[in-house]
Amino acid sequence: MSRPPIRSVRTGVSVRSARRRARALTDVLKEHADRIAVIELEGMIFFGSCDALATRTEALAEGGADFVLLDFRRVHGVDATGYKVLGQIYQRLRRRGSTLVFSHVVPGQLNTEIAEELELNGVPAFHMFESADRALEYFEEALLTKLGADALRIPAWTVADFGKGWLLSPDESAILEKYLEPRSFDEGDIVFREGDAGRSMFMISRGTADVMISVPGGRRTRVATFQQGTAFGEMAFLDGEPRAAQIDATSRLEVFELTQEAFDRLHVQEHHTAMKVQTAIGRVLGTRLRGANELILELES
Q1: Would you state the pLDDT for residue 238?
Q2: In the chain, which end has fewer C-beta atoms inside a 10 angstrom radius, N or C?
Q3: Which domains does the chain have, with CATH numbers?
């Protein structure tokens, strides 16, 4: 029973949030990935195992981790001594300049009793998250800010910007732009729902959008967040099947929409450009599939 309740310890090198960012920001996070650490816990946290947990957590901070996450997804309970030690760890890391947060505990929503006891022991509610994914996103944004990477945040994308990534010439990008429809959504709007019919894809010029899927229990969970410079909706665009996920605008969202009808016209009128666009869409889909494979491996590890 005195075995430490630690299932695994990982850093940002091997685990990251579902948020997709511009390559420059992604490269910064990769370079400093070891400054984020995740301790996945399991079983009970009680007086006989607290010391080992405290030692491991503080060793990560001493080793250079600015941000440490305690993942409570597999924790069954915490005794009074455990809560006290968790509060002490939180305060010690704060004084050291590191941030400790908790996932799968949210006051009034998820593992409420644990969340409330953590609050009583000095852990503020804003350092508790519904999932490891949301906690990691918080860490990544905080790390980018700490590193002064705000200057790398990209402005609104133009069709020409997408064209460069899709290996289109400036003239081909100008041609493609004639077949696109600019659209905008307010924060909180649903771009489309899981199961909707629709044969169009969207290229984000400005803003962010969450990809949400249904999970058992009637809930929805985020599998990715896209920002400017990324595209979504390519699966239904290519195969005509119902939408596989719901897309929620998480800020003011400005997009270029490419409908299947418009693409068919492009294919007839500008065949060479259409083929290059189709190849680029295939690369987008391939990247999504590789990401899905990585997620499956992560969940099974």
Answers
A1: 86
A2: N
A3: 6-151 (3.30.750.24), 159-300 (2.60.120.10)
